Amino acid sequence: MITIKEVKTKREARLFTTFPNKMYKKVKPFVPALNADELKVFDKNKNPVHDYVDSIRFLAYRDNKIVGRIAGIVNHKLNYNNNKREVRFTRLDMIDDIEVTKSLLDAVINWAKTNFNANHIIGPIGFTDLDRQGMLVDGFEELNLFITIYNFPYYHKHLEQLGYVKDVDWLEKKITWPSEVPEKLSRVTNLVRNRYGYRLYKPKNMKEVSAVIDDIFKIYNDAFIDLYGFLPLPQKVVDFYVAQVKQIIQYDWIWIVYDKNDQMAGFGVVMPSLGLANKKSNGKLFPFGFLRILKALKKYDTIDFYFIGVDPKHQNRGVAALIFEDGIITGNKHGVKWAETGPELEDNMQIQSVWKDFEYVDHRRRRCYKKDI
After folding, report:
1. I want to staple 31 with a disulfide (CB 3.0 to 4.6 A). Which of 110, 144, 333, 370 is the partner?
2. Residue 107 has pLDDT above 90, yes or no
């Protein structure tokens, strides 16, 4: 018999957070989230997204043993803006038993219908666009990123058996890093500098980053407004996410592009790959997890693309080319051989076209499912 129990205590919250870390511990492609970050994101007193979001966590038990977990999210602001009554599911993990999967999803559905009159469910998708999203449906043998979800192939098969259908897909690319700046790229960057007066700026310390962070997220909110499931981030939520990465941010891998009037036109943020470092620590920062992360930040051959954002007024003017030109030079300085993109919507032709002149493979695919309830 399957028993579903709402997470209410600190002990249950820890069990919820660490369940996938134990289930996937010996699975090579799995990379856990940081336990500390996962605990904070659901803490209503610490994560300001709960000012306009309701969330709930459930654990599934069989014979007093945990066999699955799930969380539900109702984003009231997004629902109001889009005239929807939608609930999201996230953090879905379970053993290969479709009855467990059904029981977990039903728990979220019943909670959302009873309390918020929901009539539609999507997922896996998180609190914000900065949260983990998308169920892996292809690329199960590839090492996951520090910022993405890993799951077994039976997950999406369970959902499809339960009547869930594709809503959107994200693609992830592995890029062979160029050994030099291509001549075509140099021509483009020279053209956009001369024609539009763009210039590149790289912050050198946290004080300089802090001075531009508000402008970065203004562009972030404006540039991504039309993307799937996106809601502009209020200042308190921005501060929450910035605090999570403040200690590990790498100034070599941050770019700001200004126009001739010294207004920010775009930005880029990349990080050395932290997947293997966090995998070795299994989501724990202490006693050795943070030291492994610091080591990974110093010696690496793979980088992960987090964001490239261009103000809509400056799109299609070669802003990203300036970032890539310096990025290639920076990558070669550090001995980079490969780059990984985070999940990118397959129908977002603007971001897909960014990579057309690079050598790459699409090696992972993620999916958000939907169902009327």
Report:
1. 144
2. yes
| Topology adopted by domain 175-367 | Aminopeptidase (3.40.630)
Structure-token pair, residue 140: 């199960």
Three-state DSSP state, 200: strand
Assigned token pair, 230: 């996106």
Outline where the chain has alpha helix (H).
Answer: 10-23, 35-41, 76-82, 98-116, 154-161, 183-196, 206-223, 235-245, 275-281, 289-298, 319-334, 349-353
- Is a pLDDT exceeding 90 seen at residue 293? yes
- Region(s) of the chain under CATH 3.40.630.30: 2-170, 175-367
Distance CA 283, CA 266 (A): 33
pLDDT at 86: 98
pLDDT band of residue 244 (cuts 50, 70, 90) is confident
Would you state the torsion angle of the CA atoms of residues 328, 330, 334, 336, taken in this order, to the nearest 10 degrees? -20
Whether the predicted pLDDT of 356 surpasses 90: no
Q: Which two tokens stand for residue 71?
A: 């969380």
Closest among 42, 244, 228 to 146, alpha carbons compared: 244
**pLDDT surpassing 90 at residue 247:** no
